[in-house]
Amino acid sequence: MVDDLIMHIADEALAGRAPERADVVRLLQLDPYSVESAYICARARELGMRACAGRGYVYAQIGVDSNPCPENCRFCSFAAVNCSKRTSEAGPSEVPIGRIVHYAKLFADEGVGLVSLMATVGLDFERYLNMVRAVRASVPDSLTIMANCGDLSAEQARALKSAGANAAYHALRLGEGTITDIDPVQRKLTFRHLRLAGIPLMTGVEPVWRDADVDELADRICEIAELEPFAMGACNLTPVSDADVGGRQPALNGFVRLVAAIARLTCGEAAPIGGIGGVAWVDAGCDPRERGYGADDATLRNKIAAAKRRLALDGFSV
């Protein structure tokens, strides 16, 4: 029997009345492959398409270094505790600035709208600023440069803005302070510092794992609208070798889709991008998830073209 209350929560969200936290908890307890979940995802899709006006985006990320990171996110191959288990490190610890600029210019030439520069906390912040400056000086103003680095002081956030970063990715992750060595208070302070510096935010609910605490998930989802991001979504836990994540396993893909859909219903139209797909990523440089990035130009161009085709097949204009 179909749960009419679930349908009502989704319909109300579509009409502009966001679910309350108790409703979010209820939605998270659904079978991700049930009729109710399908309805939640369909209504979220309708709301999200309205928010983004049906437009999809190809974004790119350049991993700029693979230094052992003292923040020890256990799900990351660059965590110092994971690096210490390896007998040798593959590849350079830092991508040369010239190569970073080359990737960024290729992405710009191929019509990518945003390039994220992802760094570990093991990279000196001044060196990171130099990378941002070099990319900003080499690409059109229309290309968004997104900073993806560690927690920031107010001064560092302002320095990033001055260097040319005009977006930032930042998230208070599930299990922060437990599965990572990061103080959740510092994560939240960085949100404030980015806002004060005038840097638009991309955020997400991540990493989602099987049997994640429903109350913690609800908290992260309900916080998104308060952060006023330009883009948001949800990301699954990605296993990496030599990582001890306390027995956690990736969530079912259907559950991650449900989390993203609930985030869209809760956020409404406030965040134009995400929560229903609509963004396809192409990656280069250092890879903290061991997914195997393509480094040569032809491979990257082919991946961008494939990303555009996927978005179009999913109903987005690119």
Structure characterization notes:
This protein starts with a helix and ends in a 5-residue tail after the last helix. With 318 residues, the protein is of the alpha/beta class. Helix 6 (125-136) runs parallel beside helix 7 and helix 7 (154-163) crosses helix 8. Strand 2, helix 6 and strand 3 (144-148) form a beta-alpha-beta unit. It has one domain (4-313): TIM Barrel (Alpha-Beta Barrel), CATH 3.20.20.70. Helix content is 43%, strand content 14%. The protein contains 11 helices and 8 strands. Strands 7-6-5-4-3-2-1-8 form an 8-stranded parallel beta sheet. The mean pLDDT is 94.
Task: Give the radius of gyration.
Answer: 19 Å
Question: In order across it, which strands form the biggest sheet?
Answer: 7-6-5-4-3-2-1-8
Shape: globular
| Count of spatially separate domains | 1
In round numbers, the mean pLDDT is 94
Strand content: 5-15%
Query: What structural category arises from helix and sheet content?
Result: alpha/beta
Query: Would you report the number of β strands?
Result: 8
The largest sheet, given as strand count, sense and whether it forms a barrel, is: 8 strands, parallel
CATH homologous superfamily label? Aldolase class I
CATH level 3 topology: TIM Barrel
Summarize this, please?
With 318 residues, the protein is an alpha/beta fold.
Task: Set down the secondary structure blueprint.
Layout: H1 4-14, H2 21-28, H3 35-52, E1 57-63, H4 80-83, H5 97-109, E2 114-118, H6 125-136, E3 144-148, H7 154-163, E4 167-169, H8 184-197, E5 201-208, H9 214-227, E6 231-236, H10 253-267, E7 273-274, E8 279-285, H11 297-313
Parallel strand pairs: 1-2, 1-8, 2-3, 3-4, 4-5, 5-6, 6-7
Helix pairs in contact: 1-3, 2-9, 3-10, 5-6, 6-7, 7-8, 9-10
